[in-house]
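2024-03-11 09:14:02 INFO worker-7 job=invfold-0412 stage=load source=structure_tokens
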């Protein structure tokens, strides 16, 4: 098969989407398939090949002022046409609902190519990046003012623009995402809980579950024991506002009342780091909260085993690759009852689940787990068992079957052309 990927994010920028694209494309080429990946241009670290059968084509892009890591790919219809005519894909796979996703679905309809879309990210949960104050960088000004008035924090600024939990920005973003995914032949969800959420959101196309998977040959855990009064707590991921790292830090402050020697390490980079550092200073725990910055994924399998517990307060995970990596390495985990996290963190089995944004409950469950050595070891054992269900080879089997079935089902069927494409024909 010849598979054409479209994504608004890819290596050298490292995130869950990029890792998933890399893993599936590399492993599927070992089975004789060919890939072309259409992705943004980042700069001097860009590359155009990943082996003989994976070609990466870069597109000109700008960035979102409120979040420079998010690339806005500029229209290149001629370039996309050339890619399709030269590569002759059997199927198009859309990985993001941004502009690259839109270009992809329009091209698929124009050329009658079967299309699937993976719902990697709950875009409606990132609506804060299109708020007026972050687009115009008023949050940067707020942080400068905050140096002189430490009682304020970035969350207080949010209150001025959040009138309800599901506000108008979320509704607009959700409508845009639904329109794109409902034009795909099949939608892939990384978890069963997210599949249920997508149906509730209004996705009416067939939805199949394919886990992003984990290389359990690399992320291999041993059952851990806990023999310390200085537990090392870990958080890994994109350090952005929707990940709620502020909740993690506030909880850690309470954990230190029971474990004064405890430390919290936060691995990753993103737009929320400065506000989080200021938060740690305000709470007077800056010496025990360690910000490492970006760490390459290739090194993480050696890092997870050095810690005792994984802690997250993210409310927007479609699967949570870093959580999967952590439990595969034998770490018990504590997270919140939101979207896909309870599929990886089984409450009372390999960790605990707290209500979203409940700082006190997160802290209490962290202390409870770190105070029970026997339960800790049992949770570690169960983490490894739960992670084993996401072996990468099985996930690759599932993805390959989806491709084959969609291609076969769409043979001889004409795809409907979108209104956008109809208008383009007259231009």
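2024-03-11 09:14:09 INFO worker-7 stage=emit residues=427
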């Amino acid at each position: 098969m010849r598979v054409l990927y479209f994504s608004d994010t890819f290596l050298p920028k490292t995130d869950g989407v990029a890792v998933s694209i890399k893993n599936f494309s590399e492993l599927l080429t070992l089975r004789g398939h060919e890939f072309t990946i259409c992705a943004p241009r980042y700069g001097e670290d860009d590359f155009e090949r990943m082996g003989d059968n994976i070609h990466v084509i870069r597109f000109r892009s700008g960035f979102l002022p409120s979040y420079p890591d998010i690339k806005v790919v500029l229209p290149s219809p001629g370039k996309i046409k050339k890619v399709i005519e030269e590569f002759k894909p059997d199927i198009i796979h859309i990985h993001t609902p941004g502009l690259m996703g839109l270009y992809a679905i329009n091209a698929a309809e124009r050329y009658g190519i079967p299309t699937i879309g993976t719902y990697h990210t709950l875009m409606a949960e990132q609506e804060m990046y299109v708020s007026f104050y972050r687009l115009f960088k008023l949050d940067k000004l707020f942080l400068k003012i905050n140096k002189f008035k430490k009682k304020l924090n970035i969350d207080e600024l949010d209150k001025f623009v959040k009138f309800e939990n599901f506000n108008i920005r979320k509704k607009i973003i959700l409508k845009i995402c639904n329109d794109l995914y409902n034009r795909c032949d099949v939608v892939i969800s990384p978890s069963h809980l997210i599949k249920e959420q997508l149906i509730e959101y209004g996705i009416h196309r067939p939805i199949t579950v394919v886990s992003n998977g984990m290389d359990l040959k690399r992320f291999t855990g041993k059952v851990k024991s806990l023999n310390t009064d200085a537990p090392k707590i870990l958080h890994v991921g994109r350090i952005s506002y929707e990940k709620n790292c502020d909740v993690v830090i506030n909880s850690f402050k309470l954990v230190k009342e029971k474990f004064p020697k405890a430390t919290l390490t936060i691995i990753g980079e993103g737009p929320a780091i400065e506000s989080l550092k200021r938060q740690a200073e305000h709470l007077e725990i800056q010496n025990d909260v360690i910000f490492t910055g970006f760490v390459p994924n290739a090194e993480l399998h050696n890092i997870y085993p050095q810690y005792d517990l994984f802690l997250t307060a993210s409310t927007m995970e479609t699967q949570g690759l870093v959580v999967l990596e952590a439990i595969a390495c034998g770490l018990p985990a504590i997270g919140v009852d939101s979207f896909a996290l309870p599929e990886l963190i089984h409450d009372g089995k390999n960790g605990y689940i707290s209500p979203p944004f409940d700082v006190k409950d997160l802290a209490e469950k962290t202390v409870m787990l770190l105070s029970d050595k026997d339960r800790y070891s049992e949770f570690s054992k169960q983490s490894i068992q739960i992670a084993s269900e996401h072996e990468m080879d099985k996930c690759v089997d599932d993805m390959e079957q989806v491709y084959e079935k969609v291609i076969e089902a769409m043979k001889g069927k004409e795809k409907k052309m979108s209104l956008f494409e109809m208008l383009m024909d007259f231009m």
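2024-03-11 09:14:09 INFO worker-7 stage=report msg="The first strand starts at residue 2 and ends at 6."
2024-03-11 09:14:10 INFO worker-7 job finished
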